[in-house]
Each structure stands twice: as structure tokens, then as C-alpha cells.
TrEMBL record:
Protein name: Chromosomal replication initiator protein DnaA
Gene expressing this chain: dnaA
Role summary: Plays an essential role in the initiation and regulation of chromosomal replication. ATP-DnaA binds to the origin of replication (oriC) to initiate formation of the DNA replication initiation complex once per cell cycle. Binds the DnaA box (a 9 base pair repeat at the origin) and separates the double-stranded (ds)DNA. Forms a right-handed helical filament on oriC DNA; dsDNA binds to the exterior of the filament while single-stranded (ss)DNA is stabiized in the filament's interior.
SMART domains linked to this entry: AAA, Bac_DnaA_C
Chain positions covered by the region annotation Domain I, interacts with DnaA modulators: 1-97
Occurrences of domain AAA+ ATPase (ranges): 172-300
Cited NCBIfam families: DnaA (TIGR00362)
Domain notes: Domain I is involved in oligomerization and binding regulators, domain II is flexibile and of varying length in different bacteria, domain III forms the AAA+ region, while domain IV binds dsDNA.
Organism: Aequorivita echinoideorum
Amino acid sequence: MSKTAESVWNNCLAFIEDNITSQAYKTWFEPINAVKLTDTALSIQVPSKFFYEWLEEHYVKILKVALTKELGPTAKLVYIIRMENTYGNKQPFTEKIPSANRSNLQSQEVDVPLKNKSPELKNPFVIPGIRNVKIESQLNPNYNFDSFLEGESNRLARSAGLAVANKPGGTSFNPLLVFGGVGLGKTHLAHAIGVDIKDKYPEKTVLYISAEKFTQQYIESVKKNNRNDFIHFYQIIDVLIVDDIQLLSGKAGTQDVFFHIFNHLHQNGKQVILTSDKAPVDMIDIEQRLLSRFKWGLSAELNHPDYDTRVAIIKNKLYRDGVEMPEDIVEFLANNIKTNIRELEGAIISLIAHSSFNKREITIDLARRIVDNYVKHTKREVSIDYIQKVVSDYFQMDVNTLQSKTRKRHIVQARQLAMFFAKKFTKASLASIGSQIGQRDHATVLHACKTVDNLSTTDKQFRKYVDDLTKKLTL
Ligand code: ADP
Ligand code: MG
């Protein structure tokens, strides 16, 4: 049987899927289309230049292995970069980009159909003169990319943010939705993108607004009978950043007006950046048509920072404040405050304040007391890491086994219990629980919770697991 681009690519995908996390697979491989096979050269279409760069940087090895398996040692990969306007006016024009030879998998010079730059649409409703009104961006210059340290937990979101800042409205990350738990840097990153755009494109109108303030303004405008002015004001913005859009939940009027503003901006190639404390799948009381638009671009999660990133953030903060702190205290803080960067910063500030007001040296003892005070309220909330540890210990396996892909029954059960307790004892979303417990999706977590519920009513032994573990976790 002769090979087609599609059959070759499907085989590559099957191999790749087995070898990387499902999150990475979904993000970076599902959006790719195989378009052409000539001899041993496979052409694949990727959504953007950034996408292509990311693949080259992170996945070129596995791509090479997969493709060589399929097409032999002379295999070549050709990227075709497509940036399409989601509205479907696909009139590509062609541009050459220089071949990237960073990899030994030869990337060739490719024809790049780029988005057609449509002429500025005139808004017939623009209030005369409003274009001359200077709109204050409401950006905090301290929240910039330099002060936003990179780590495993934020790499995707940060890189996507940078890509958007380089070409607002010109990447497929539109909207860019940054989501993640409290204090993990959503607001900081959203500002950083805006600040960077202002820097690179001073003529662009950038506006940062919290969803809460947006809602208040909207309600005001309805009261004052100038809803249209409100809409027009937002429609002339080039880069709109709306923070905490989960706050629109249940607010039908505001959602409706935001829907129209969003469509107008998106249609005109303007950039929209959103943040939320939940993934789109976990948002409640947000209209479907709005949710589906949130998913048009890229949703990038901010996860809990790992130990090294926590240390780097602490050191950076100390450096900026011109304060020195012994290494063991930095480590102590990084070890004890794990799930919220704002709290980490708060503890550093209290520690510095205590030591300078009371003219005392910063000691481990002082640090311990402050951390105890500082994270008291969160201390009782168990972390997902802790739950996984307790469950693994209970079943005498290690956490890696619990997270592994195996279908062995006792391991699956342990994993399902960990998911169940994560849902029960933390505020994390289903998606976030899934990503922290072996890179599963929200549906898997939901299924786990139901299975545990069922089994604990029908199976005595299982009931005992649940009771034992509940005791251990709430002790
Ligand atoms: P969120 O909006 O997700 O609740 P914020 O953006 O307000 O979180 O971040 C909380 C604090 O943590 C801020 O002071 C921010 O500067 C800091 N912070 C978050 N992420 C980082 C990072 N990657 N590097 C440095 N500081 C960070
Ligand atoms: Mg915030």
C-alpha cells in the first residue's frame, strides 16, 4: 500500500503521543495537519511561526525519530506556516522565511501563506473626536517580562505572551487566555504583555481592565443610557486585556456586551488577552458562544512553581529590594510556601519588616514563626502534592507509579482516590487536578470522582480506603 501524507503523519502521531504528555500532545500536535508527501519529504501545516519555533526547539528530536521510522534515513520535514483569520477570509499571500537550520532534521525554505492584512475597517459609530482621546493604558510598569521569572510552571504562558507582544493580533493566539490558581502570576503576566506592546508599538491603544471594573462601567452606562458609547469606546482599542473574566459568570448583560466587543476586535485583527482562575471547560454560568470564543486562540495555564522557580523568585525579590538573606532561610521559605507566589512575597516582606523594626537578625526561627502566621489559613488546605504523597504511601507505591499510565487495577484505584480527594479537599479545578495527577484531562478526573463515589457505597474494602485516607488527610 502506498504511503500518503496523512498515513505517514498518523503513524508519527501515534508514536509521539506515546512519548510525551497528553497536555503537550494536545497543545502542539493536534493542531497540525499533514498536507503533502513528496518522496521522503513530509509537509506539515502549523498554525503560526511561534508554533513552528516551539516545535523546532522542543520536539525536533522526537519528530526526527518518528519520521525516520516512517520514511527512512533521508526523511525531511517541511513546515508550512499558516496564520488564518478565524473569521475565514483566507486570502493568503506568500512570503519566504529563511530556513531554520538549527536542527539536523532539514527544515526547508517554505511558502508561508500569511494572514491577509485587511484594511482598517471604519467604525461608522465612532464618536467624532474620540480617536484623539488618549486612552490611559492602566498598566503597571513594574509588572513586566523582566520581573516575571521563567520556570517550568509558566513557560508556555510566558512564551505565548511574548509571541503576542511581538505581534499583537498577528498570531493565532487570539484571544490568549491565561488561567491558573490564585497568586500564580496571571495579573502580572497580563500587564507584562501590555507593557511590552506599549514599548514596541507606542502608537497602539492598549487597555488593561479587570472584569469587575468592566462590569461596573457597563452597569453605569446602562443607568446613564449610554451603552453605545461604552461599546464604541472598547471597539477602538487595539489590545484589550481583561483580567479575571471568570467574574463575568452569571452576568448575562455584561457577557452580551463583551461578546459584541470581542467579535468586533477579533474581526479587525485586534488582540484580546484574558485571564481567568479556571480553564474554559470549568467556567460556570458563562454563555456557550462566549466560551467557544475563549477557546479560539490559546489557553495557557500557570501552574504551581517548582522549587527552583520559587527560589529564583525569592532571590529576585530580595535583590530588587536590596536585601540579603541567608541561603538556608531562602530554602526554608521555598520549601514551606509552595502554592501561591503572592504569599511567598508576603512572607518575605513580613520577614524583612520584622527584622528591621525589631533590629533582629533574620533567623530560621523568625522565619518559621512568620511562615506559621502567614500561611496558617492555607495550612489546613491540603495540597494536591500532599494528597498524592499520602495516597501513594498508603498503598505502598511511589508517586510516579501513582501517576503512571498503567491500567493495573490497584494503581488506577489509587490514582482515582487521589483525584477524588483533590476535588474534595482543594479548590483546584478538574482540569488542574488532572494536569497535576499524571497529566490527565478534566473528564478523567470527573470519572474518577464518580467511580470513587460508587465504589465506596458498594464495596466495603474500598469504603475502608476512603475512610482511612480521609483520616490521614484531615489529621
Ligand atoms: P494572580 O493574578 O494569578 O492571582 P498575580 O499576578 O497578582 O497573581 O501575582 C502575585 C504576585 O506574585 C505578584 O506580586 C507577582 O509579581 C508575583 N509573581 C507571580 N509570578 C511571578 C513570576 N513568574 N516571577 C516573579 N514574580 C511573580
Ligand atoms: Mg490577578
